Protein 1
Amino acid sequence: MYLMSKVERADDDLLNFALTYIVWMVYTMVVMLTSVIFVHYVGPQAIGSGIPEMKTILRGVQLKECLSFRTLLAKMVGLALAIGSGFPIGKEGPFVHVGSIVANLISRFVRNFKSAYANESRSCEMLAAGCAAGVACTFSAPIGGVLFSIEVTAVYFAVRDYWRGFFAAACGSAIFSLLRLYTHSSEVTVVAFYQTTFKSRAFYPEELFIFALMGLFCGITGAIFIWIHRQMVLFLRRNSFMKIIFQRNWIVYPIVICAFYATLTHPIGFGRYITGEVVFSRTLKDFFMNCTWSADPSRFEACSGSVAVRWSADESIFAELTVFVIGFYFLSIVASTLPV
């Protein structure tokens, strides 16, 4: 609070830049390092998205402590702190892992009363339903949750598990929507997670070709994303110098990444080109707004002034969007290598 008050009273540009940078750096580093340390000592099995572990378990391989209560605690606390630090870390994988752990703990509890749940096949059914509920709680999409649970199993998916997965996903989606209603004072009823409105003629036939090109481009960049991430992870594991850092001073890598990320996203520095001063929830709301960013402010379809200011720092809106996409494309790769 002392530093923030100094920042507000600072008249000198250099002093203002230095103080805001220190506050930004300290906040990012403290929150993320707390997440890393908590996960490291409480449940190191919680490191990563959790989806590869679930695929392995559903194929019949036992992973020690992967579905334990300690891992659940580490996953929940670590994820909350990691997202709160501002890093571009997704929730889908961790939610799938959390849903599966909860399903496993429930089945172990019920096993004391109903011996049928001691069957290994029944445990797999519970885990598949947990995966579906995890995705449903992420996007409030029960059908997507069921489809994803089918995708996770990859090898086979028993027909009898369809209704179980859909029931778990529907319950998870309903609870998620109700909790969002009661925790957000602006909501008066249960609504879609991201509301959209489309005109009777939402697009023109000529635009279908552009949509196809966008899908092709996103597919290619997604494949490149996975390749770059794989090469980076292999480098961190095989490089002799990085091995020494991870084995003897494992906290050094998160510190370096936090300092790098905080420097790039500092709002007064480079961060003004990638909307570093706002959280991702605000960014997503901007993307889903029913208005035209590039329209003249006098036109009715133009966005509000705050959106225009937020996305046109020193350049045009299109230039800043390009920098935003490229910047967070690579920052997401780096962030996903952190041990949280």
Protein 2
Amino acid sequence: MPNEKKTWFDASQYCASQDSHLAILNSRNEFEAIQKLIPGVGFYFIGFHDLFSEGNFITVNCQTIKQAGYDNWLKGKPSGTYNGKKEDCGTMNENGLLNDEYCFNKRQFVCEHEFRPTAYNNTW
């Protein structure tokens, strides 16, 4: 997790520049691993949004939140708007609760690098 704040879009671009993407939570265990890395941060951007269809949250890999495996919202969330601003981008707090937030707020964020196994040829 970079120690800087960015908009959701800038955070997404930063992660892509690092050959990763905004983190997608697939389980409570993943949240607990992130929590150990960044205790006390408050809300931070992760990889989900409803930019294409209001209320239909998908991950940056185009899965629904339920398909991804982690659907643990703050009470009363998602709300869609706050103080007249559309809340389309995903955040999570230090307790593992998801929130929809204005994409142009600046928050810390978590990138996730996908593990891609490679073949090893030992006959060379």
